[in-house]
Design a protein that fits this description.
This protein is mainly α. It contains 30 helices and eight strands. The strands form two sheets. The protein has a four-stranded parallel beta sheet. It has a four-stranded parallel beta sheet with strand order 6-5-7-8, sandwiched between helices. α1 (2-22) crosses α12 and α8 packs across α9 (257-265).
């Protein structure tokens, strides 16, 4: 009893200590939408949906998750037998079926342990750690299960029914095999195994909160408290708050409590890092390691501030840095703990390597959010310390001065229309002069307005809008940068300035529908502009509108394209907004076109490398992300690589040039491919001005 009470005390103390560390953070803002939260728990905790993205690991985890829950009833039965020799749980005629179910579960868990050991230490899955801590849980699990069966086997010998039983197949087989020891030795062995079972069980209980298996507690809580906002929506900064002296988050306690809960919820499964384009192309960033370093920093700083030892029993961890800090007393420890989050814990190189693609978050089984933490730290560097990647700084300066990352004169924003004579793309001002109304505002974006290659995408879209007799207008030189690039780089002030100006222009012209070829603009308009006053406006990506026009028969793809195409999913169209089918439906509607999927597609699709402001920053470490993605596309032997984002198209085009296949593999936007089938001409065959 004393051992059990001591173990439960240590467990409660460890959990309470970590809750105290989390409370060092800022108060989190929650919208208590219980139905959405309940559904998230049912889907991702009990349904294990995200874990089953990796079928093998998912099945193992399902075995462990449900097996360990169910087998606790068997543990109670074993403890009962030790405290009340010769008896068992009073389940009446159900007891034999109870023992059968429990033994089957025990065998399944042991099978799962062997499988997990094989994958980690024999197959050596890259994303899985292989240190002694990683294997400790397998030792605890196997110990609890084996000693449970041995205890029951010895009990059967003592009770004199050591014959094989269909209701206790494993333990009765042990009893048969060990029957030669006799009742007296079996009695002694019964208590040896009983104690070993209890000690392994209680040790595991104490181990859980101070290991990666804290996710057993923090994970379900994290899923329940997960975001109900639009996917990937960033928290805004209130620049009107005069009490704010620091913008962004440069200290661990600057993050809110939900963000800090993420750190203890981390499973250390490595799925985020395995899918990260920065990691995969040899960059410094690893999403998992970023969270773990922040977690360890929080634990040490929490120990210094609260004087609570995070590792228990304390005498066994007297050499641990956090316990030494806790022993000093809060004032002395806090003064001596001179560790900077950005610089000492997380490097600036890591922060600038992120493409904000959210592949990490999509893969995370406990719904951790990595990108918001990176953006918050970028904001601190940019807005508080005035530090920024030099290439990013140049792009920001150009956007501030001319409204585009290149610094081209803002009065040239509408000149893209001159690239073709066969299109009619009037400005709002011109429509008013014609005394005509428009249905859609075509937000061209900086890429479509200034980049020579992307101008062709804008022109093709305008041509098909004309063909379908869709009334649209552009803002022309009144259009400003959408602000996505400044916001993801960390210049929140510039983003809000641009958003406010764009919204004012939308409202001035009574805009009710916006369509854009830029998924980044699409995302900020749809999910982030609302906070700044954009209301009652429908936002479309051009593939969504084109799909509707094809379905309605207003655009008829009739010319055959005898090509093989693979489609690349834009992160801000796919993972951020779930738009996967419209581009593919358009391609499938084109006669003669064969669509083949890359190995990584849809939710698992890899970033092109342009997101998060990386379009404007030079990659110095490892392989270029766009080259890696291009190699994945070329692996399926296409004659075309399709995209629905001007940023992606630029990166993929550069990738085909790097691989020296640009003559044999075309890179095209969906709208350009559709135009070929509808109009029947190639881009370079159109009449130029």
């Amino acid at each position: 009893m004393l051992v059990t009470v001591y173990a439960v005390f240590l467990f409660a103390k460890l959990v309470t200590t970590r809750i105290g560390f989390i409370k060092l953070g800022q108060e989190a803002k929650f919208i208590l939408t219980s139905k959405e939260r309940r559904d998230a728990v049912l889907t991702n905790v009990f349904g294990q949906k995200k874990l089953l993205k990796d079928k093998k690991s998912g099945i193992i985890h399902v075995i462990f998750f449900y097996g360990f829950l169910i087998v606790q009833f068997s543990a109670i039965d074993v403890i009962w037998k030790g405290l009340n020799p010769g008896s068992h749980l009073p389940l009446g005629p159900l007891y034999p079926w109870f023992t059968l179910s429990q033994e089957l579960v025990v065998v399944m868990i042991l099978f799962g342990v062997v499988w997990a050991f094989y994958r980690r230490y024999i197959e050596k899955i890259v994303r899985l750690k292989r240190n002694w801590k990683a294997g400790l849980v397998l030792i605890f699990l196997s110990g609890v299960m084996v000693f449970k069966l041995m205890t029951k086997g010895m009990d059967q010998i003592v009770q004199g029914y050591a014959s094989w039983s269909v209701f206790e197949p494993a333990s009765s087989a042990i009893a048969q095999g060990m029957a030669f020891v006799g009742p007296d030795v079996a009695t002694a062995l019964f208590y040896v195994f009983w104690w070993l079972h209890l000690l392994f069980l209680l040790s595991f209980l104490v181990y859980v909160p101070q290991s990666k298996h804290a996710h057993l507690i923090a994970g379900p809580a994290n899923v329940w408290l997960g975001p109900t906002k639009p996917t990937g929506k960033l928290e805004s900064i209130d620049f009107e708050d005069e009490s704010k002296e620091v913008f962004g988050k440069g200290k661990i306690e600057d993050f809110d409590q939900k963000q800090l809960l993420d750190l203890y919820a981390c499973v250390e499964c490595g799925r985020c890092t395995n899918m990260c384009p920065a990691t995969g192309s040899g960059k410094m960033l690893s999403p998992m390691d970023l969270l773990l370093k922040m977690r360890d920093h929080l634990t040490e700083k929490g120990a210094a501030v609260t004087s609570q030892s995070p590792w228990l029993p304390a005498y066994a961890f007297s050499g641990a840095t956090a316990n030494q800090l806790a022993a000093k007393g809060s004032e002395e420890a806090a003064a001596s703990y001179d560790v900077n989050l950005i610089g000492d814990v997380i490097t600036e190189e890591e922060l600038w390597a992120c493409t904000t693609c959210r592949n990490c978050e999509d893969q995370c089984p406990v719904m951790n959010e990595h990108v918001d933490k990176i953006i918050d730290m970028r904001r601190y560097l940019v807005l508080t310390e005035g530090k920024m990647n030099p290439d990013a700084q140049r792009a920001m300066t150009n956007i501030e001065r001319q409204g585009n990352p290149w610094g081209i004169n803002r009065k040239e924003r509408e000149n893209w229309r001159d690239s073709r004579e066969d299109i009619d793309a009037p400005t709002v001002k011109e429509m008013k002069k014609r005394d005509e109304e428009f249905e859609y505002l075509f937000f061209v974006g900086s890429m479509g307005s200034y980049d020579k290659r992307s101008q062709k995408i804008a022109a093709s879209f305008a041509k098909l809008m004309n063909e379908a007799d869709v009334k649209f207008a552009i803002l022309g030189n009144k259009e400003k940068n959408s602000g996505d690039t400044p916001r993801r780089i960390g210049n929140e002030f510039l983003f809000q300035e641009l958003a406010t100006a764009n919204i004012a222009e939308f409202q001035k012209n009574d805009v009710k529908k916006i369509v854009t070829i830029d998924p980044h603009a699409y995302n900020v308009f749809k999910n982030e502009y609302g906070e700044f006053g954009l209301e009652d406006v429908e936002v479309y990506h051009h593939t969504e509108l084109l799909m509707d026009l094809v379905k309605d028969g207003r655009l008829k793809p009739s010319h055959e394209l005898n090509e093989t195409i693979t489609y690349h999913d834009s992160c801000y169209l796919g993972r951020y907004n779930g738009v996967y089918d419209p581009p593919r439906e358009i391609l499938r509607a084109i006669p003669g076109l064969k669509v083949v999927e890359m190995d990584r597609n849809r939710e698992d699709g890899m970033c092109c490398g342009a997101g998060g402001g990386m379009m404007w920053m030079e990659e110095e470490a490892g392989q270029r992300v766009n080259v890696s993605r291009t190699e994945q596309a070329l692996a399926v032997d296409p004659t075309m690589i399709g995209s629905a984002c001007p940023y992606c198209l630029t990166m993929l085009s550069d990738g085909t040039k790097d691989k020296e296949v640009e003559e044999s593999v075309e890179t095209l936007d969906i709208v350009e491919i559709l135009e070929r089938s509808v109009i029947g001409v190639k881009q370079n065959e159109t009449v130029s001005a």
